[in-house]
């Protein structure tokens, strides 16, 4: 599907070199260690919270930081649980620290969780999509911090999809959920540090509380810096191609199709057993991180979108691509069974589904997004920490 040409290879070489120069917030220890001195610390982290070649927790313990506990998000502290899988409290085998799960029924740290804590740290690699739940965990941690008068330090990391803003804005409050808590587009174009500032500044936290927030910024990063993630951010985003495709292909989670969970190419393929058998084929199986994937053990026929990171990023063209979803709907034999209710939560409205059913073109659909997108972009500019 993609042709690798010399300019793209040159671009990849240059941007990979730029990536090597990025210094994450976690690496800037001189900026935040003084804030931890003599304090009891809790961290909301997962496997992406690394400092050099070691986990942030291990690094801070070696620096004699008094860590009381670890809070974990969706997928757990080690990042190997399925999407949506219940993750309970546990003890970290390596350090002996208690792990308190903030995913499931107990999503928000309460007074009991924080009674032995003086300061909180958030350090999780995000991928810049509204329905990627780490920013929902960030919001609820900020609310907990504010309500219990605890300062919060966000150790910022680059957003691999931070070079554009696109998609429908979630305006229908009845569709707000953990996969979309605020009136932002599918691709918000902000780092978690910038988004945290927006949550505070726009008074979006529950009851308008204000979080005592410190953001330790990245260095040598702007919104067009290519950043190769050193650790996969969740089980089904194994590479940069998947991360670039995710804001568009995640919409297939709200359909009857498989998008490759349980294969080597999650979020990079889509298909269904009813499609023509001359198309690309794949069969989802139970795998770590996808124990019960949609259409498990059934051969699906469809399309393979993957390629080199540079080729996929070029194909995305700084947009949420609807062409694959529109094509999949047209090809699906039982139109009334294509969408499932979850689709509207991912889209952030009930309109997109109807637009596709009516046969509107991608250009017509995109035009309906423009007023809310323009307003969001204006608001976003107030909170940017890095050049565009």
Task: Explain what you see.
The protein is an alpha/beta fold. It has helices at 6-21, 29-36, 56-62, 111-114, 134-147, 192-201, 240-249, 309-316, 323-331, 342-347, 351-357, 362-381, and strands spanning 40-45, 50-51, 54-55, 66-72, 90-91, 98-101, 119-123, 152-155, 166-169, 185-187, 213-216, 269-272, 280-282, 300-304. It starts with 5 loop residues before the first helix and ends in a 7-residue tail after the last helix. Residues 1-19 have low confidence and may be disordered.
Helices, strands, pairings?
Blueprint lengths: L5 H16 L7 H8 L3 E6 L4 E2 L2 E2 H7 L3 E7 L17 E2 L6 E4 L9 H4 L4 E5 L10 H14 L4 E4 L10 E4 L15 E3 L4 H10 L11 E4 L23 H10 L19 E4 L7 E3 L17 E5 L4 H8 L6 H9 L10 H6 L3 H7 L4 H20 L7
Parallel strand pairs: 1-4, 1-7, 4-6, 7-8, 8-11
Antiparallel strand pairs: 2-3, 5-6, 9-10, 12-14, 13-14
Helix pairs in contact: 5-6, 7-8
Mean pLDDT: 92
How far is it from the N-terminal to the C-terminal residue, by CA? 30 Å
Q: So how many helices?
A: 12
Gross geometry? globular
What order do the helices and strands follow?
A: HHEEEHEEEHEHEEEHEHEEEHHHHH
Compute the CA-based radius of gyration.
Answer: 21 Å
Largest sheet: 7 strands, mixed
* Strand order across the largest sheet: 5-6-4-1-7-8-11
Percent of residues in beta strands?
5-15%
Task: Report the count of strand segments.
Answer: 14
Give the class from helix and strand content and strand pairing: alpha/beta
The level of helicity is 25-40%
